[in-house]
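Chapter review: from sequence to fold.
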Amino acid sequence: MNTDNYPSRLLEAATSEFASLPGIGKKTALRLVLHLLKQDLADVEKFSSSILQLKKEIRHCKSCHNISDTDICNICASAKRDHSIICVVENIKDVMSIENTHQYSGVYHVLGGIISPMDGTGPGDLNIKSLEEKVAAGNVKEIVLALSTTMEGDTTNFYIYRKLQKYPLTISIIARGVSIGDELEYADEVTLGRSIANRTLFEASFNGGKTG
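The token string follows.
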């Protein structure tokens, strides 16, 4: 399929917009646009309206930084969740992945990324200060580090550990059932669930299993 000779500038413009999305090439973008052209106007308006409404009205939870329709997300607002346990994740997709396991009943804290000097991302660019403020308030018993098992993820884990180790709480890390270099969103639910259920002390993860 040749996508260089468009019969319409409108078709070309719409295709270019779809192709700007991550993981969408020009051929896939063209197929999506042609699909929309076949739909009723009301359906296309509904589609575009939902995207605009998302962009205009979406919020981030003031407590955990997860995406929410309200100032406080449903997880943080739930009395059924254990608010003394905070699972630290990189992004919103990780929250969704862990929730799908049904193996975790605490709350979350979304960092908004991980420390990556190559990408120009430092500790000050992440939601680490607000995490420490929660811990300093004295109501947190455990921090579960659930970042991707990459060099950047491990660096971020260690940074957070050093920031929080002065507080009287347990700092644990998910078991390495998730392969090194993997991101949580690509782990199957059973593996990820076991990794959370079988979490270990973070200090033991870099001290050869010794904590003393």
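Two observations follow directly from the output. The chain has nine helices and seven strands. The chain has two domains: 9-57, 80-205.
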